[in-house]
Design brief:
This protein has helices spanning about 25-30, 115-120, 135-150, 155-175, 185-195, 205-210, 215-225, 230-250, 255-260, 265-275, 280-290; strands at about 5-10, 15-20, 30-40, 45-50, 55-65, 65-70, 75, 80-85, 90-95, 100-110, 125-130. It is α+β, with helices and mostly antiparallel strands. It has 2 domains: about 5-175, Sandwich (Jelly Rolls), CATH 2.60.120.280; about 180-290, Homeodomain-like (Arc Repressor Mutant, subunit A), CATH 1.10.10.60. Strands 2-3-10-5-8-11 form a 6-stranded antiparallel β-sheet. β6 and β7 form a beta hairpin. α3 runs antiparallel to α4.
Length: about 290
């Protein structure tokens, strides 16, 4: 296994903050946890270069200018921008010598950190520009304050805060450019149509023709704003309705399949199992045993 390597120039002001945390066994096994957190006002020559560290890193630019080199690309960061990277991969970041970088950062690990990172990394760009109203900078500040005044609740509160921070980060990363009020005019009518007709066989070509759209443009734009393709959206509607019938009725599985628009009960069972990780009958039995 390749070993951890790091090279750095620890050039920052005396007022800068760097807090190192050693997680408890419970935190390592169950929580998201902070490894290091801080707020640097850098001096000329500041840089960090490392790889093969089991850690994820978020660095937010409070002021000045910084440069990140990651995955064979170079990025310039200004105020209001952050980067989110996997520290197992080689990375290098440094301050601009004239416009000194002020950064707030957290190294963290544990929980489902990898899952959050992989969702973020679906974009090839590790840089995110935050809206002026984003709560992320304040969340980073809260993590610093939590670790300056550590007590018995610090690890739990840090874990909760990291989840909130990562959730907000993914929401910010997935939001299309511009305000959500600028949702394309055809998305809401299509969603309304699918909500009302999910039991029917709806082909993409039919949907495109009905709404006078190019089918490729429809599919791409729908996924951009709704998170799923029209077909996936319909499947989720069907699964959710099936759950409702399984929980609150004794309607046979075969009839439920037909009611949600799936003629082949075997296909329904396989589809349900692939999405819910259990069969419809097992789902029903488990739910009914709780009531």
């Amino acid at each position: 296994m390749t070993s951890f390597s790091e090279n750095f120039a620890s050039l920052w002001t005396e007022s800068s903050v760097r807090l190192i945390a050693t997680p408890s066994k419970t935190a390592r096994s169950s929580f998201f946890y902070v490894q290091e957190v801080g707020h640097f006002q850098t001096l000329p020559g500041y840089f960090t270069e490392r790889e093969h560290l089991n850690s994820y890193l978020i660095v937010y630019t409070a002021a000045g200018t910084g440069t990140l080199k990651y995955r064979n690309r170079s990025y310039t960061l200004g105020p209001g921008q952050l980067f989110f990277i996997d520290c197992m991969e080689h990375h290098y970041y440094t301050t601009d010598r004239q416009n000194l970088w002020e950064l707030v950062w957290v190294h963290f690990y544990g929980g489902t950190s990898r899952g959050y990172y992989e969702q973020f990394a679906k974009s090839s760009n590790p840089i995110l520009s935050l809206d002026a109203a984003s709560p992320i900078p304040d969340m980073l500040g809260q993590l610093i304050r939590l670790h300056q005044q550590k007590d018995y609740g610090t690890e739990l509160l840090s874990s909760r805060l990291l989840v909130s921070l990562l959730t907000e980060l993914l929401l910010s990363a997935s939001q299309p450019q511009g305000d959500m009020d600028m949702l394309p005019h055809f998305i809401a009518p299509i969603v309304d149509f699918l909500d009302k007709h999910y039991t029917e066989k709806i082909r993409l070509e039919q949907l495109a023709e009905q709404f006078a759209l190019n089918k490729f443009h429809l599919a791409k734009t729908f996924k951009k704003y709704m998170g799923d393709t029209p077909n996936e959206y319909v499947i989720n509607l069907r699964i959710n309705k099936a759950k409702e019938w399984l929980k609150y009725s004794n309607v046979p599985v075969e009839e439920i399949a037909a009611r949600i628009g799936i003629d082949n009960v075997t296909h329904f069972i396989n589809l349900f199992k692939s999405r819910v990780e259990t069969t419809p009958l097992a789902f029903r039995k488990k739910w009914h045993s709780l009531n």
